[in-house]
Amino acid sequence: MFKTILIDDEKLAISRLERLLSKYTDTFEIIGRANNGAEGLAMVESLRPDLIFLDIEMPVMTGFEMLSHLKHLPLVVFATAYDEYAIKAFEENSIDYLLKPIESERLEKTVQKLNLWKAGNEHQTKSPFDDNILKMIEAMRPKKAISSISVKTGNKILLIDLQDISHFEAEDKYVFLVTLDGNKYLTSYTISILSEKLPDAQFLQISRANIINTQKIKEIEKHFNGKYQITMKDKAQSKMISGGTFGDAIKELFEI
Length: 256
Known about the structure:
Elements: E1 2-7, H1 11-21, E2 28-34, H2 37-47, E3 51-55, H3 63-69, E4 75-80, H4 84-92, E5 96-99, H5 104-120, H6 130-140, E6 148-153, E7 156-161, E8 165-171, E9 174-179, E10 184-186, H7 191-197, E11 203-205, E12 210-213, E13 217-222, E14 228-232, E15 239-241, H8 247-254
Parallel strand pairs: 1-2, 1-3, 3-4, 4-5
Antiparallel strand pairs: 6-7, 8-9, 8-12, 9-10, 11-12, 13-14, 14-15
Helix pairs in contact: 2-3
């Protein structure tokens, strides 16, 4: 049996997958369920499963980001709504994937593939997909050579120039872009993805929920326990408190 962890931020998706997997009691032993990438990372390192079913777009940490931090890399089956380009990448790297909503007929093919792999690799401890997964993660990482961020509003797509952005803020599982003139737009990115995508010379992550435009800061005040209160130059003069682990980066950047 494959010791298995299910990682998805949608509880209904986990419930559906678990219900479908219950048909294969001789193949899967579900040993854990995680609701985001950070939780999944800790669970995988602790429980060391043989296999994970992994969502890609999740708050806190995406599936790709989670994989890039793993020391123990199990077999991976992605559960994704990605387009054909991404699916082609999965296929070329011999990684299985399931399109949401997952259908029982497609899951049957995954089970067959896993059982065939196990039958031919009973004494193999390393996943044959290890190198391929890591290469795919690297190839799909966002590049930093950007000058704007695209956002949807109604039927339009707006390109917001980086110079017009005050900061980004996470609320629950959503991340918003706030402009200097006070407009607020929902983005399709996580904070972690933005920290990779945005240029380091202009943007700085100051907490798990905030990234600021360092060129649009009005003032910085010392807060408690090595934290800082940062006031921005946007219309609302937004105030944010830095996270404890981000204090050193702020001190180094502003030499305070």
